[in-house]
Amino acid sequence: MRKIFIILFFTSVLTGYGQRSKNIFSRDPIINLENFQQKPLHFGFYLGFNSYDFKIDYNTKATDILVKKTTGFNVGLVADLRLHEYIDLRFEPGLYYTKRDLNYPSNTRFTNNGDTYREVNSTYIHFPLLLKFSSLRTGNIRPYALGGLSASLNLSSNSKSTDDNSQNRFRVKSWTPNYELGFGIDIFSEYFIFSPSIRGVFGLKDELIRDKDTNSPWTGSIESMKTRAIFVNFTFH
Questions:
Q1: 194 or 14, greater pLDDT
Q2: pLDDT value at 109 more than 70
């Protein structure tokens, strides 16, 4: 049902834009919302998709752990503060859901325990603070780049659990600091601004909580495990 809702929602949006495309993309368009971005502060919301991964470094020579990525869902709010004609400070708190599957290589360390699969479900409250650098507006479109820092609170981290992988409990830290880089485009319609964007998210610190057994086949060979993600967001102002 969620996928059907998303498809219907974006179909209606694109249909509306198709009807107004002559005004937005024509050679001599009618300028929409000409003074909107002159406001010192404006708000919006976004919906989107994510693909989370792990960057894993090892402390010994080891066969890579395979990370299977899935497509997750994002929803959040936007507060945009105008600092300069071409620079904005943007705060985008949101809720992000994702799932990653870890498949450990079968080897002698798992001889007595063939449990080589871990499902890592994550529900993040994401707090990015970004600088948005916009280009000159051309008609009703305005490309931009953005980057900054963020922190993610993982509500599914299991960080307070005393169980570990020997009890089938995979644990990561609750808070993760990141940096983010991306780009997008503002499309000015008659009544609102539609902004599709894509950006990469890069974890700055190791977030793995290791098992009590230092020789654990699940965590013993891992030097660091950091989040990597791609966000595709559709923002409405």
A1: 194
A2: no
